[in-house]
């Protein structure tokens, strides 16, 4: 029997879908628009997690609107802030990562929205959307240590970083 908790005990909960990029690939040939919806659900979760972890500040919305933000709004802000905040240990900008995030964001706006709202997405578009979004999620992690850029906080330098420190997000 499952334990029941009162809402005030657990706080705000985000929906976590068990769908994976492979799940989307498994249905793309039969139902490409469903694959697009699956990707959108995955990205809604992953981008919300990233935005919270990167301490992205978004305008407040009243009531339930605040909890209904989508991956597009989060990724817009992550991409915009990433230009000045995402760095390598040498201090260099991370243009390659930003390009991957921007491509996923563009495709989410164009194709995932269409898959969700009009039910029209073709196989080639769905495959490209899946690949772009999977790559975007991977880029939240360091290529060297494979940890998310937000796994460690360095208060003296006002930043969060991966375990090895080669990829960081400047909080100042």
Compose a concise summary of this entry.
This protein has 172 residues and is of the alpha+beta class.
Characterization of this structure:
The chain has 172 residues and is an alpha+beta fold. The protein has one domain. Helix content is 51%, strand content 8%. It has helices spanning 7-10, 21-27, 32-53, 71-85, 95-117, 123-138, and strands at residues 86-88, 152-154, 159-161, 167-170. Strands 1-4-3-2 form a four-stranded antiparallel beta sheet. Strand 3 (159-161) and strand 4 form a beta hairpin. It is globular and about 50 Å long. Mean pLDDT is 88; it is low at 1-8 and 10-14.
Outline the secondary-structure elements.
Elements: H1 7-10, H2 21-27, H3 32-53, H4 71-85, E1 86-88, H5 95-117, H6 123-138, E2 152-154, E3 159-161, E4 167-170
Antiparallel strand pairs: 1-4, 2-3, 3-4
Number of domains: 1
Structural class based on helices, strands and sheet pairing? alpha+beta
Strand order of the largest sheet: 1-4-3-2
The proportion of residues forming helix, as a percent range, comes to 40-55%
List low-pLDDT spans: 1-8, 10-14
The DSSP helix count reads 6
Please state the CA-atom Rg, rounded to the nearest Å: 17 Å
Q: What is the N-to-C succession of helices and strands?
A: HHHHEHHEEE
Tell me the distance between the termini: 47 Å
Please give a handful of descriptors for the protein shown:
globular; 6 helices; disordered N terminus; 172 residues; single chain; four-stranded antiparallel beta sheet; alpha+beta
């Amino acid at each position: 029997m499952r334990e029941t908790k009162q809402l005030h005990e657990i706080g705000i909960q985000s929906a976590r879908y068990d769908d994976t990029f492979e799940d989307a690939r498994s249905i793309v040939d039969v139902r490409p628009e469903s694959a697009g919806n699956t990707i959108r659900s995955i990205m809604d979760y992953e981008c919300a997690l990233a935005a919270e972890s990167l301490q992205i500040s978004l305008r407040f919305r009243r009531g339930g609107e605040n909890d209904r933000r989508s991956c597009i709004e989060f990724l817009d802000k992550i991409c915009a802030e990433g230009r000045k905040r995402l760095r390598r240990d040498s201090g260099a900008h991370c243009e390659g990562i930003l390009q991957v995030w921007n491509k996923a964001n563009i495709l989410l706006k164009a194709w995932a929205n269409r898959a969700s709202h009009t039910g029209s997405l073709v196989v080639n578009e769905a495959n490209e959307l899946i690949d772009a979004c999977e790559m975007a999620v991977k880029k939240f992690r360091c290529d060297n240590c494979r940890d998310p850029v937000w796994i460690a906080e360095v208060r003296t330098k006002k930043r969060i970083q991966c375990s090895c420190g080669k990829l960081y997000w400047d909080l100042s």
